[in-house]
Amino acid sequence: MDFINAYSPDHLTFLLEGFWVTLKVAFISIILSFIIGGIFGILRYAKIPVISQIAAVIVETIRNLPLLLIIFFTYFALPEIGLKLEIVPAAIVALTVFESAMISEIIRSGLNSIEKGQMEAARSSGLSYVQALRYVILPQALRRMVPPMVSQFISLLKDTSLAVVISLPELMHHGQIIYAQNINYFVPILLLVAIMYFVVNYTLSILARRLELKQG
């Protein structure tokens, strides 16, 4: 094991470049999956004839597919039907599709956790269904959704490493390039990569626990 040369300034800079790609892909995917997952979660909660059933089928189908398969499909299969994506957009699309399904279930469960009497009381006070959902149900549900959402976003950050199969230039991919130069770099680089993931994910875990305690 060669820690000194493995941690050279060039190698550290290269790893940080990969880590930046990891954070960027994760951040964009989190924003998009929250929006799309929110729409699907509300559609399922609202039980709109036909539309809610279609949303449920889509969500359950995606939730029961491995993320790796979705990544492969996005990057290799979509070009066959004329939709070719570069590596970074393909990774973002795949992660967004998968995480949207997970987030939609969290949102649906959060909405369902609010007592039905709350909706009935809001409607009886003269609010429309949409107004009751927006001003009464959602604010309460969102507080309960935050801890599981943070946990899901932690999973998303770790899942970016799966995009190494399409050569996404993220942290794990850059780590592989470095230790491929010298087998003595293998353990030092993997150790540093693990520490970098741990620091970010552990920070988010602490945040999730504190939010959960506040809700308790």
Automatic annotation (TrEMBL):
Its main location: membrane. It is a multi-pass membrane protein. One of its GO terms (cellular component) is ATP-binding cassette (ABC) transporter complex. InterPro entries: AA_ABC_transptr_permease_3TM, ArtM/GltK/GlnP/TcyL/YhdX-like, MetI-like, MetI-like_sf. Keywords: Amino-acid transport, Cell membrane, Membrane, Transmembrane, Transmembrane helix, Transport. It comes from the Bacteria. GO terms for molecular function: transmembrane transporter activity. One of its GO terms (biological process) is amino acid transport. Residues 19-208 form the ABC transmembrane type-1 domain. PROSITE patterns: ABC_TM1. The keyword Transmembrane helix applies. The chain crosses the membrane at residues 20-42, 54-75, 87-107, 183-204. It is found in: Cell membrane. Pfam families: BPD_transp_1. The keyword Cell division does not apply. Belongs to the binding-protein-dependent transport system permease family. This is Amino acid ABC transporter permease.
